[in-house]
Amino acid sequence: QVQLVESGGDLVQPGGSLRLSCAASGSIVRLNTMGWYRQAPGKQRELVASITSGRSTTYADSVKGQFTISRDNAKNTVYLQMNSLKPEDTAVYYCNAAVVTTTAFGYRSLEVWGQGTLVTVSS
Predict the structure, then answer these.
(1) What is the DSSP code (8-state) at residue 61?
(2) pLDDT surpasses 90 at 1
(3) pLDDT of residue 55
């Protein structure tokens, strides 16, 4: 089994900053692309940013220049630095990872989700 545990969500004022963390644990052979998604009340879940194992990054247009995704492969952890936060950034943020794990029958590729962490931007 592989688990993702997010942390760092909080209540922050507009213009503030937060850093989210997501640590992967379990029977991990390789972590491929990792990403952050968010879901605001009444809206669909959307991709915020993703990063490959080689550290190539992709961002939603709405967060380019505002958010930065990074990863520490030695710690199996991905981060999301969020600056200049706006009320419209309020959402539950979910970590996602493409993982290669081991089973009794060999290697297996999985897509794993974290439980989510709430970010609220409000004065």
Answers:
(1) G
(2) no
(3) 94
- With 0-12 / 13-18 / 19 or more C-beta atoms within 10 angstroms meaning exposed / middle / buried, residue 44 is exposed
CA distance 106 to 113: 22
* Tally of residues, the chain: 123
Q: What is the rounded distance in angstroms from the CA atom of residue 33 to the CA atom of residue 55? A: 9
Answer yes or no: are the C-beta atoms of 93 and 116 closer than 8 Å: yes
103 — pLDDT class (breaks 50, 70, 90): confident
Residue 107: half-sphere exposure toward Cβ, Cα within 13 Å: 7
What gap in Å lies between CA 61 and CA 58, rounded to an integer?
9
Q: How far apart are CA 38 and CA 17, in angstroms?
A: 16
Question: What percent of the chain stands above pLDDT 70?
Answer: 100
